[in-house]
């Protein structure tokens, strides 16, 4: 069974920064493509960013481009990814979910159905 655990959420003022972390462990794959999604109250869960198993490929939603950076360093911590979020606005406030996918192709998935393993989420609150 794959476990996905997020951390790093919290309260930040508008314009501030937060760094989320996520680790996937267990299962039959040794390494996973991973992604971040978010869900605000009353809204659908939406894609934010993802990274391929090697880290060579990334994908971002338009609103995250230029502000958020997803990264991983498999030499230091395999299956741990980070989401650096800068210039946060109240529109970014949501529960952020990390997801993982056992990967044989080195690409960055961006659809919810492509990720079979999910974490419990971490709350990001942005004050104006």
Note the main attributes of this structure.
128 residues; seven-stranded mixed β-sheet; four-stranded antiparallel β-sheet
What does this molecule look like?
By secondary structure, this protein is mostly beta strands. The chain starts with a strand and ends with a strand. A hairpin with a 7-residue loop joins strand 7 and strand 8. It has strands at 3-7, 10-13, 18-25, 32-39, 46-51, 58-60, 68-72, 80-85, 94-102, 117-118, 122-127. The protein contains no helices and eleven strands. Strands 2, 4, 5, 6, 9, 10 and 11 form a seven-stranded mixed beta sheet that branches. It has a four-stranded antiparallel beta sheet with strand order 1-3-8-7, with no helix packed on it. 34% of the residues are buried. The mean pLDDT is 95.
**Which descriptor suits the 3D outline?**
globular
Biggest sheet architecture = 7 strands, mixed
The share of residues in helices is under 10%
Measured between the Cα atoms of the first and last residue, the distance is 40 Å
Query: In what range is the share of β-strand residues?
Result: over 45%
Helix/strand-derived category reads mainly beta
Determine Rg (CA atoms, Å). 14 Å
- The total count of helices amounts to 0
Average pLDDT confidence is 95
Order of helices and strands: EEEEEEEEEEE
Write down how many β-strands occur, each being a DSSP E stretch of 2 or more residues: 11
Show unreliable segments: none
Brief characterization of the structure:
With 128 residues, this protein is mostly beta strands. It has strands at 3-7, 10-13, 18-25, 32-39, 46-51, 58-60, 68-72, 80-85, 94-102, 117-118, 122-127.
């Amino acid at each position: 069974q794959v476990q996905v655990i997020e951390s790093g959420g919290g309260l930040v003022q508008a314009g501030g920064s937060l760094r989320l972390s996520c680790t996937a462990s267990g299962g039959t794959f040794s390494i996973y493509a991973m992604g971040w999604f978010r869900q605000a109250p009353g809204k659908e869960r939406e894609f934010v960013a993802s990274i391929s198993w090697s880290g060579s490929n990334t994908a971002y939603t338009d609103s995250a481009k230029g502000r958020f950076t997803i990264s991983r360093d498999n030499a230091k911590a395999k299956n741990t990814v980070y989401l650096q979020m800068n210039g946060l606005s109240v529109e970014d406030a949501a529960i952020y979910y990390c997801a993982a996918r056992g990967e044989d192709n080195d690409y960055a998935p961006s659809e919810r159905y492509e990720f079979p393993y999910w974490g419990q989420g971490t709350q990001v609150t942005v004050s104006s």
